[in-house]
Every structure is written in C-alpha cells, then in structure tokens.
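Incident review: delayed structure delivery

Summary: a single-chain prediction request sat in the queue longer than the usual turnaround. Root cause was a stuck worker, restarted by the on-call engineer. No data loss occurred. The affected request and its eventual output are reproduced below so the record is complete for anyone auditing the incident later.

Affected input:
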Amino acid sequence: HRAGRRVAPGAVLSFGDGLLTAQVLERTEGGGRIVRFRSVGPLDEALQQAGQVPLPPYIHEDLEDPERYQTVYAREAGSSAAPTAGLHFTQRVLDELKRRGVHIADVTLHVGPGTFRPVKAEYVDEHDMHAEYYHIPEAAAVAVQEAKREGRRVIAVGTTTARALESWAATGETAGWTDLFIYPGYRWRVVDGLLTNFHLPRSSLLMLVSALLGRERTLAAYREAVKERYRFFSFGDAMLIL
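Output delivered after worker restart:
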C-alpha cells in the first residue's frame, strides 16, 4: 500500500482505539515492516477484534462473512491468504471422496503476502522468492510415502500444498521455512497432480502450474478458460491436472 511507504522505523501505529499498538522496528528488503505488537489482553484476541481478514489485492471489498474465505478444513492461524483451491470442497465432498477410497492427508503452509508479488526479474531464476513456513505432520508424511511406494498418485490441493510437499522432499525436513521457487524445468519429487485455481499472469503460482502441465498446455488451458468465461482468481473456478 502506498501509504505504508511513509511508515518509518520508530513509528507507533494504533488499532482498535488503542486495543492494539505496533511499533515499527525496521524495513525489510521486500518493502514490508517488522513490528513489535503490544495489546490490551491476549494478543490473539486483540488481533481478532482489531484486525481484518487479509485479502488478495484484486478483492476490493470487505467480506460480509469472513468464513467465505476459509476452507472447511482450516485449523491453524498464521496464513496471509486462503489456499483457495480448497474453497471448492465442502465436508460432504470430502466425506464422499473418502468413501470412494481417496486417502486425504493434511499439511500446513502459511501463505505469505509475497505470494501475490509479480515476477519482475528479466530471467526467472533471478526472482527473489518469498519464504513461507510449512509443516508436514508425521501421519501425512507416512501416507505420502506409502502412496509413492504403492504407485498411487499424490494430488496436491493447491499450489501451497504442492510447495510444502516438494520442500519436504527437497530438504528432508518436515517443518521449516521454504523459499522454493518451482518453475518450468523443475523435477517433481512428490506431486503427481494438482487441483488449482486460475492465477494472475507473471505470478510464481502460474509458473508452478506451468512446471507441472507445460507452458503450451497451460496457455491452451487458459485460452479455453477465457473462451468459456471461467472465473479466475480466489473465488473462481479450478482446474485439475492429472
């Protein structure tokens, strides 16, 4: 936000009539700020009362019902955006998938605000990828390993899940910060398929899709989506890549 450029280190911001204050400690390379919060009462409660649901830059109105921007399986707070491929699932759909023999495993990746930042570097490998925290629970790790051993497909619901799984495969760490940038030419280690929405051009998310589907087929899919008037972005339609 342009107004944010004027917020210098040392400034103190107040939210919710003083319920929550934030002292700006320093600027980050990406234009963000590191702040120290102080609250009246527990910080989590103050954030809930004084804060708003963080929304992508292309959504310009507040949501009347914040739960619309939340998956039915969301559990942990910490993400700057919803894993929007998951918005297509209801509990009824998940139950039906399980009934049909689909094994569902849960992972965590806290989406950072950098996920919406366009790739501006002239060469894709020069893009400074934002870091995000991920966690692969033991049950999920075991389920994925069994599926790979038995030749069953691992389908990631969303680019966030794909990035978490591939970060685990690349490092061997089931939790940590990842700045893995997946773009065409990447060698996939875990993910065999992907359910994902239609993304902004020049975004790292679109490049991840191209890494799995291929550039020409990705462009063809997007041309078809435009022709058939599919809805794009967070509350839009999805594509299943197998």
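Verification: The chain has six helices and nine strands.
Action items: add queue-age alerting; document worker restart procedure.
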